[in-house]
Amino acid sequence: MDTFVHHKFNKNLVYHIKLPRYTSILIGLSGGQDSLCMTKLFMDIKKMYYLDIGIISIDHQWRYDTVRNIQQTINIAKDLNVKTYIYESIPKYYSEEEARNIRYQILINTAKQYEYSFIAVAHSLNDQIETGLHHIFRGSYIDSLPSLTWNRAAEHMVHIVRPMLNMHRWEINWFCRYFWLPIWNDFSNLECNKERNRIRQELIPYIQYHFSYAIENNIGTLINNTYIDSEYIRQNTIKLYFQFKHPYLIAINIINFNSQHQALQKRLLYLFFLHHSNINIPYTLLDQLIYKLNKKLVFKISYNQIIIYNNNKWLYLCYKQSIHYNQPSKLKL
Question: Where along the sequence do coiled-coil regions lie (predicted)?
Fold first, then answer.
C-alpha cells in the first residue's frame, strides 16, 4: 500500500464502508479500468483485513469481443488464485435499467448461494455524477439523486458496497497505468447515441470548458449533501409510518397524516403503497391523493389491482376481488 490511491481506498473502507475483518467479499470484475483497479486494491489489503475474496463476471453478449473479454477475466482470476463465477445472459437487447436489474439479481443470488457477506462494485465519482445528471434529466425525485451509496443492504444479510465512490476517473487511470494492469477497453462506451455516454463524452467536458472546471467536485458535493438530507427525511418517514399505520388493517391515519409537511406526506404514501402492494405509485397520483386528503374529501379511487378509499379518518388500501390478498401483482409502468 504505497500509493495515494491505496490510502484513499483504505480510508473509505474504514470510514464509509465500515468493512469488518474476517469477512467474505464478492468482487464484480468486467475487465475495465474501474473494476481492475478495485480488484487490485482488494488483493493488496487482503491479508490486512483477512478477506475471503471471490470474483464474478457477467457477460451480456452485446459486443463481438465479449468472448475474448471473458477469457481475459478468467486469466486474471487464475493469476490471482481466487474463486471465480462467470455468467452469460441470453444475447438480446435490454434497456439500461433491465440489464442493471439482471446484473444485480445475479450478484445477489451468487452472494447468497456461496455465502458472501459483501458485494463490491466499482462505481467511481464520475459514475455518481453521470447517474445524478441522468436522474435530473428524467425529472426524478430528489431522493433518487444519491442513488449510488457507499453501503446498501440488499437481501439475506448481503451488502452492496462501492468503495471507490469518491475517486476520480483520472486517479483510477493513473493507478492502472502505474501497475501496468491489463485494461480491456469497452468501445461501446464511446457510442454517443447512448444518453449516459453523451453525458460523459460531451456534456461534462462542455460544462468544464465553458462554465466551471470543478463541476465534478461541485456536483459530487451536491449529491453527498442531498444524500444526508434525504436519509434524514427517510428515517423520519419510517418512524412516522409505524406510528400512523392501522394496527390490524391496511390503512393509515389521516388525521395524523394531514398534520405533516407535504414532503413527508408524499413519502409516507409512497412507502404505504410500496409496503403493502409492491407498487411504485406515480408521483402524479400521489399529488392527487395528497390534494384530496388535505381538502378532507371522501373518495374512492381504483388504480390497477388496488382500490384506495378514504373516509377522513383512515385511508384504506383494498385489493380487487380478482386478486388474491397475499399475492399482489407488480405494477407494469
Answer: none
